[in-house]
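Here comes an entry:

___
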Amino acid sequence: MNAMQALDVWLRRLTVAVAVSMSLFHLYVAWFGPPNAFTLRATHFGFAMALAYLALPMTAARRGKAPGFIDIAFMCAALAAASYPLINQTYFNTRMAYVGPVSVMDQVFAVMMMVTILEATRRAIGFILPLTALIFLSYQVFFTQADLVRLLEYQYMTTDALFGVPAQVSATYVVLFVIFGAMAERFGIGKLFMDFALALTGHAAGGPAKVAVVTSGLFGSVSGSAVANVMTTGTFSIPLMKRIGYRPQFAGAVEAVASTGGQIMPPIMGAAAFVMAEFMGVSYLTVAGYALLPALLYFLAVFLAVHFEARKRGMKGLPKADLPRVGKVLKDEGHLFLPLVAIIGMLMSGYSAPFSALCGILSILPVVMMRKTTRHEVTLPKVIEALESGAINSVAVALACATAGIVIGVIAQTGLGLTFTGLVKAAAGQQLIFALILTMIAGIVLGMGMPTTPAYIVQVALLVPALVNMGVSIPAAHMFVFYYAILSAITPPVAIAVYAACGIAQSPVMATSWMAVRLGLTGYIIPFMFVFGPSLLMIGTWTEIVLTAFSATMGVTFLAAGLAGFLLRPTGWLARTLLVAAALTLINPGLLTDVIGLALALLALLINSRERSDAWDEEADAPRVSLAETLKAEAAQRAKR
């Protein structure tokens, strides 16, 4: 082994050691309680930046190569900047902001911290979010005559900006649930979700697509990442959908839409949900309660879309002989549900989200060892891999939260949020529907360039106050912008979840993106439904909640049927138009609109019952492959990766 190879091995071991140490540090904090704010958040960012500079290349040309001199230099500067508040804890914790002096050293380390955070964020998630932060900083420096020293002080030496609420959430909530997701994947819970979904829906019409919806909903609620979900479950579901006759773009779109919905599906959801709980000052369980009915409607819409598409094309399910049995799955693997049950039980018992996540993590190994069928999964290398993967997977979220904190700091210092609220109200002309449409567009555009969490955080500062000022309830306003930050993952032209699915499906990107928009169209409409009917967020009397849920369910069903062109049988344009009109009428809850919507749907049903019953089966001759062959191919792909 030459010197360069020895260095590569040493750096690889260093990366593993840093990642495992980061996971263990956060597990320790969750058990014994967090230290003071600066210590926790600076340590969290120090670990995240160290991993970014060790594991992520500066340019695409260096992908797969060991860190170079520049990477190590950036890492040392990042660690120095993150360590400065730790070494000077008393100074940072006792000084009075805007009153105490800011030394030259304070300013130097503040600049170092901001520069290294922005560069690490660029490596982790691309240039859009760092560029956004730079634009906001430039606005503050050049257009508000800001005092540069006070800008640096606010960003680095207070807990209102870079070390603010997003940093707190990332360091206490998000990293633990990411570790839980990594361990769940490593120790077979993902396989349980797939087997369970196959047993439940594999035999139905278009079974593999329904398997994708169910599996992605289950696993996505744990992973909280659309792209990670696509790459995990899509390697199985997409080839299987293609092999029973679905078009590549449809298969890719189904997986992308279902995986994206995982971020809104309780019990765990995505990282932004924890930030939302912190911003609104409510428990995470309350946020999960707000999200439950809209999430169920979202997945019902996707499920019905693939069902109607399968019926329209005359597709059959998988042979029952090829499928696992529900009883056998539960007998061999059902105990792997217990970590999720533990988290839900702890949350419902009133324990904090970090402690509940810790209990879920600590329960995984004992639960896996309960049965002989899964006991072999527990090995020391797998435990290390899970801790390493959990830390590395949390890097992007941590750095995004840090950079979003910089943007929040600028907005707070300059009063830009109030200015933006005035602009939105002026542009909308005091009309709520126009304000909602403007907010939707802004949310999708922001989400296209950055992950859900920072996109949501920026919207909370800029857009949520405008909606609340126009009479929207606080939970509905937050959930509204949350949804569109998520849906940007399937919205062209920058549909990141679709790009991931296209790589597996080998389908054209734009065709798959527009198919994803069609399948996920209900997701674009649901936020308007809970703004005008807050009972969809479980706010109000049980009578109101049940009636709104029923109305929304009918609307979702009619919309899926109208878009697919199938109800009892393939529909003509008149019936399709009536179904879509019925669905849109049911968006606004109320007795009159519900009656009109149901009347339109009944008329469409009557017309459809008299139409021809020939199923469109243009792909009936598509190659079909057994489940056993698909499982074998999927296992080979995993081994190759």
